[in-house]
């Protein structure tokens, strides 16, 4: 089936918008299981986007990246997190440092900022994915925002992984993806990181009886007082 | 501008007045089916209205002219809005006089007077209802304008008739901006017409009611007019949504021959819209009042994202 360039760039834009919207949803999500589901959805949209760009731009290595994204970020990592959260028995709602409407407005400001920042790149680039670079940068910053504003260690790690997701997205939209070796390396790193994070969670939980990052600082102050 | 377009205009206004209770009845019937209850039928709203019209009006001693004037004003604005929104055809003499922004301010006038009349008698419930209604309105209106602006930017006009024409002439394309605006608009319709995640139209429970609290003091033909208006409001908002996002099937030329087909499309689309409303209503629980700002914040966010993605992607 022949797809015109116009339609292709529309589909890519639409998928990019979906990735952005999952990012916003992750910022607003209160429940930790919901957060994991959203992370999986973001991975799915990303994988479809990458595969589609790979098909349109005729870059076969993007299919491998898309497959890796699908396997790792849609199924394996959410599954690991699911088990972790279940074992660690986290039932509480995720605590935010900033209230959600404010976070949303910061998110909108970040989108505008990244539009401004990526303007020169958009002018010079000739790829069909050039306009999605704005959204990619915005999702990177929103992952960072999520890491900053969450108290729970598990959600911070999900924020970190969401950031990695969007970096991958940015690479796809700016240059049709990084070389395959780099992407394989990153994928492996992420997998290993997830395992190490898991072990860390258990250690934090047994030492402090909580995954709240604030508690760690407090305990240290108590020790200094003594 | 021929004679035909004036006939179409008159027909459309009559249709809005006459069909709105049937649409409300359709939504209620669907809801009954979904909840496994037996239905009072599609025409129950007509019987309710008839009953209310035949009852006498009981007025409080201290009711001012605002209280007596408001039902007629509400009905009038709804009828006027019914003449502006392209429902059957885009060739409407009234449509040229007002764009979407005027339309929204028409609804705002109606809401302003309803809130005033809620406070007019001086009962606690009326004041509470008015204050809640204004809180929701103050948050819903910017979001609604944002969604409308997005549609206007994409179609390069704020006039609904022209928006429909532009959508007709262009090919069907997948635009993130329009999708975001549509989702935002659906969220706002639910809030503006007092449907379930925000307000329960069927409740008279003291703590949760918003719209019902304001009209608690009304009776007889006044109440009938207000009830009729709120049915028309639901109908009009759905038609506004259809006109702005999916106008296919509407009569583009102002001839009477195209009307039956346009009418058929309209009924089909309203049927689907009712189904969507009922699916949302049965699937969700009414949220706490203090969650409503968050809900409308999401609507505003989506509408703003729609506008931003118009600039970024298109």
Q: How are the secondary structure elements laid out?
A:
The complex is a heterodimer of chains A (226) and B (314).
Chain A: H1 5-28, H2 32-57, H3 61-88, H4 100-124, H5 133-149, H6 153-175, H7 180-208, H8 213-225
Chain B: H1 3-34, H2 44-53, H3 65-84, H4 100-120, H5 124-155, H6 160-169, H7 176-192, H8 211-214, H9 220-245, H10 259-283, H11 292-313
Helix pairs in contact in B: 1-3, 1-9, 1-10, 2-9, 3-4, 3-9, 4-5, 5-7, 5-11, 7-9, 7-11
Please tell me about this protein's structure:
The complex is a heterodimer of chains A (226) and B (314). Chain A has helices spanning 5-28, 32-57, 61-88, 100-124, 133-149, 153-175, 180-208, 213-225. Chain A is an all-alpha fold and 226 residues long. Chain A has one domain (5-225). In chain A, helix 1 (5-28) packs parallel to helix 5. Chain A is globular. Chain B has one domain (3-313). Chain B contains eleven helices and no strands. The two termini of chain B are 35 Å apart. The A-B interface holds A 7, 10-11, 13-14, 16-17, 20-21, 24, 28, 100-101, 104, 107-108, 111-112, 115, 131-132, 134-135 and B 173-176, 179-180, 293-294, 297-298, 301-302, 304-305, 308-309, 311-313.
């Amino acid at each position: 089936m022949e797809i015109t360039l116009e339609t292709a760039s529309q589909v890519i834009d639409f998928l990019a918008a979906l990735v952005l919207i999952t990012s916003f949803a992750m910022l607003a999500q209160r429940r930790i299981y919901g957060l994991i589901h959203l992370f999986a959805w973001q991975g799915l949209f990303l994988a479809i986007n990458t595969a589609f760009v790979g098909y349109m731009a005729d870059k076969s290595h993007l299919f491998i990246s898309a497959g890796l994204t699908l396997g790792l970020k849609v199924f394996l990592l959410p599954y690991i997190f699911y088990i972790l959260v279940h074992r660690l028995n986290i039932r509480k709602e995720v605590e935010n440092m900033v209230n959600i409407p404010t976070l949303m407005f910061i998110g909108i400001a970040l989108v505008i900022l990244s539009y401004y920042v990526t303007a020169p790149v958009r002018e010079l680039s000739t790829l069909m994915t050039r306009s999605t670079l704005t959204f990619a940068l915005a999702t990177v910053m929103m992952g960072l925002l999520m890491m900053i504003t969450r108290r729970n260690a598990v959600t911070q790690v999900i924020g970190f992984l969401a950031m990695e997701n969007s970096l991958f997205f940015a690479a796809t939209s700016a240059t049709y993806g990084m070389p395959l070796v780099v992407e394989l390396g990153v994928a492996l790193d992420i997998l290993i990181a997830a395992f190490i994070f898991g072990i860390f969670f258990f250690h934090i939980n047994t030492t402090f009886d909580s995954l709240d990052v604030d508690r760690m600082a407090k305990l240290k102050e108590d020790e200094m007082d003594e | 501008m021929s004679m035909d377009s004036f006939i179409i205009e008159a027909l459309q206004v009559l249709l809005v007045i006459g069909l709105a209770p049937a649409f409300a009845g359709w939504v209620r019937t669907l809801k009954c089916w979904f909840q496994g209850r037996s239905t009072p039928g599609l025409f129950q709203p007509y019987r309710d209205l008839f009953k209310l019209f035949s009852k006498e009006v009981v007025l409080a001693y201290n009711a001012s002219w605002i209280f007596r004037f408001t039902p007629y004003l509400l009905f009038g604005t709804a009828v006027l809005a019914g003449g502006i929104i392209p429902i059957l055809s885009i060739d409407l003499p009234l449509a040229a006089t007002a764009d979407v922004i005027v339309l929204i301010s028409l609804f705002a006038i109606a809401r302003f007077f309803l809130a005033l009349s809620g406070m007019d008698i001086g009962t606690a419930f009326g004041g509470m209802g008015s204050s809640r209604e204004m809180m929701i309105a103050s948050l819903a209106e910017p979001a609604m304008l944002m969604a409308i602006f997005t549609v206007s930017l994409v179609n390069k006009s704020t006039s609904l008739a022209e928006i429909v024409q532009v959508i007709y002439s262009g090919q069907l394309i997948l635009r993130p901006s329009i999708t975001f605006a549509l989702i935002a608009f659906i969220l706002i319709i639910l809030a503006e017409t007092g449907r379930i995640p925000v307000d329960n139209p069927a409740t008279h429970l003291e703590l949760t009611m918003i719209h019902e609290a304001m009209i608690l003091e009304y009776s007889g033909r006044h109440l009938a007019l207000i009830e009729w208006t709120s049915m028309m409001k639901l109908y009009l908002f759905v038609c506004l949504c259809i006109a702005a996002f999916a106008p296919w099937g509407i009569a583009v030329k102002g001839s009477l021959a195209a009307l039956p087909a346009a009418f058929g499309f309209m009924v089909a689309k309203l049927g689907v819209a009712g189904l969507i409303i009922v699916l949302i209503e049965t699937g969700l629980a009414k949220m706490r009042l203090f969650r409503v700002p968050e809900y409308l914040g999401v609507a505003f966010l989506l509408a703003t994202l729609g506008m931003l993605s118009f600039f970024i992607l298109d």
